Amino acid sequence: MGPRSHIAAAMAVLGLFLAAPAPSQAQALTPTQSEAQAAYDRALGDFKSVLAERRSQIEAKQKLPNLPGQALYLARVAVISTYKNLTDAVPSRIGKPNKFGIPPAYFDAAIEPLVDEYADIFEIMEAPPASAQASVTPFKDVVDLGTAIARVKGLAPAEADAAGRISLGLFYAETNGKQNVRNARSNTYMGSLQTGPSEDRNGQRKWEAIKGAIAAANPALYARDDQEEARSRGTDRRFNHWTNVRDGLMNAHAEPFAEIPAIVKTLPDPIEQMKLFELIQIIPSPTRSALKSGDLLNYRVSDPTIMKHLRNNSIFAFGKADRARSSASFREILGAMWLFKRKFDKAMTKYAEIKPR
Predict the structure, then answer these.
(1) Residue 273 to residue 324: CA distance in whole angstroms
(2) Which DSSP symbol is given to 301?
(3) Could you list the mean pLDDT of each consecutive 10-residue stretch along the chain, which spans 357 residues?
(4) Whole-angstrom Cα distance, residue 10 to residue 209?
């Protein structure tokens, strides 16, 4: 066969290849699948639009709307939800793993840059006020406070260390390890541990009740606390890193710290322990009831308000199947907290730096 014949044959094969429909074209989508694809495309377009709008407003130094992060958050929820609906309808759309640790059925790794932009915009919108009182040792402060509180609550040193580690996980879960931040989705919850005014006052009251024990057990920490008390006097104490962490831990976690020995037996994985204490932040009453039940992992919640709180904190929030849940066991709730894992991984890394073995 001469050169021209080779070329002709190659062109004929290429023509057949080009004429053949691509796999996605050959397998036409059903109406349900097409609807799922269209819904995802709309959600993705909306997400890009609101990201661009906020970025433009920030760069133009325009006044942002009240709760400027809420529209962004809802747009991100819609993207993840509609992608999960799409992969439920078209399983072949499940792609490669992503750097956020989101299950691939919920997230297309190709849009990672959009989520990076989302995080950057939130960091700008939630920047601490100019009057905020930062710490030069924010991570160590969290660990020291959690550990000290646990010790005066009667925990042994190893168990108190777990309380310090869990406290650091809470700091990352609430603010990704950023001190004194505001909240772009709420006008109530502020600071390093994102407390409201009543929670802050309650934590302060509980701290006063154990100050004598703290002074006896840890004079250095007591002295630091006196310094921060004086420094924060006359201000919104939630924007003093030390006092906000202290009062946030005392408000919600000091009593549950006493349960750590039993919790560690049920949940030996430190990240699972962090998840549980984050649930005390999100749904405090049911979590305390679950701890008292003697069957933590199988304890179920079914109250619609509680399920709404979970969804509002990115648990069972994505896709029709998850959002249709009317109840869940704590085993299922912990398993659904995959958006928190990356934050807790960071907390574990930071804890290893603070408390090397």
Answers:
(1) 27
(2) E
(3) 37 34 59 97 98 98 97 98 98 96 97 98 98 98 98 97 98 98 97 97 97 97 98 96 98 96 97 98 96 97 97 96 97 97 97 89
(4) 86
Distance, CA of 231 to CA of 223 (rounded, Å): 13
Select from 347, 170, 154 the least CA-distant residue to 257.
Answer: 154
Question: Any idea what the Cα angle at residue 264 is, between residues 260 and 267, rounded to 5°?
Answer: 125
Contact between 149 and 249 (Cβ < 8 Å): yes
Q: Does residue 327 contact residue 336 with C-beta atoms inside 8 Å? A: no
- Of 318, 297, 315, residue with least CA distance to 307: 315
Burial of 348 (0-12, 13-18, 19+ CB in 10 A): middle
pTM of this structure: 0.90
For residues 352 and 32, give the distance between their C-alpha atoms in angstroms, rounded to a whole number: 49
